[in-house]
Structure prediction request, 379 residues.
Amino acid sequence: MRVAKLIAQAGIASRREAERLIEKGVVSINGKKVLTPATFASEKEQITVNGIRIGRKSALPRVWLHHKLPGVVVSHKDEAQTEQKRVLLFDRLKQMGLPHLISVGRLDMQSEGLLLLTDSGALARHLELPESRYPRVYRMRLHGMLPPHVIAAIRKGVNVDGVSYGPMDIVVDRVHGTNVWITVKLLEGKNRELRKVFDHFNLQTSRILRIEYGPYKLGNIPKGAVVETKLTGDVRKFALTLTKQSHQLTPPLPPLPSPPTAAAHVIPTTTAAEPLAAKPIAATDEISLKPHEISNQGEANPPTSSSSATTRSVSPCPSSPRSCPPSPPPSPPRRSTKQSSLPSCITTTDIFKKLNKYDPHTSATWSAGEPVPYAFLAA
Prediction:
């Protein structure tokens, strides 16, 4: 696991802030300074930030419930260019002595109610995704009349300025003058979704209070308070899978495949006393002979040492072509399918004389310029 992720899980800083700490050179592993954020480590190693060893992450991710106040911005930095400094939620959390936390989604500045906080980015992402099917329940106060056809349209889903919003379940709680209190349940949380949908039908939203998120409820949590809660239901099941994955080591990279090698052509060996039948040679084969292995009569000399016991020996061809024994049926050529037009019985001397490459005093090599069906060679 990357060092920056371990630092973030320990609640020291966010992953991006941890990477900046590594670049400053204040992070060490087992006494050695970390030079790059792309460094991997395990929870068993001693990781220090500014000389202080970070604590191990708990067995399971943790979840907190926060009753957000209106006027508080759910952000680490105030990106708005305003003269008046706004109140940031995560600044307050640091003042409370809480570790580095991640919000599950957001509530806009004027919205209030339940906000989930966790120390696991993966768990926060799981809770945010619409595919996870965690319902969000809000109580809303609208200014204006809410006719039945508007409720029916919102329940089917609407498109506002090219953005599609999914179906919402709406229940009218009470009507007080020109104000309507409703309960809305939806399965996604796009930016300012509720305000945009009801503004589309000329309904002014004067208050939004989130009361439920998945299995968690706002209940009697005081305004502005943060309360840690237990993992329940599907949230706990997903947290257990995260714990198993964090304890698995990164598998090693597979070895690089070796370059393909051509299959070696093995020539069967035999003793000097065992004659070999003539073998066809394709036009692309290459034959090498040494001068001491060829006599003037075109016959192969016998081996002169015991180490040449594995060389091929050939039977002399009769001097008269008419007395040549019948050649065996040719086997399928290995490389070329061209049929030879030369006689089936021919001596090595005839081969080299024909090609004008025979020299008894130097090495004679025949490059297959034309196919020869049989040759008598020494290995």
Residues 248-253, 262-278, 283-315, 362-379 have pLDDT under 50 and may be disordered. DSSP finds eight helices and 19 strands in the chain.
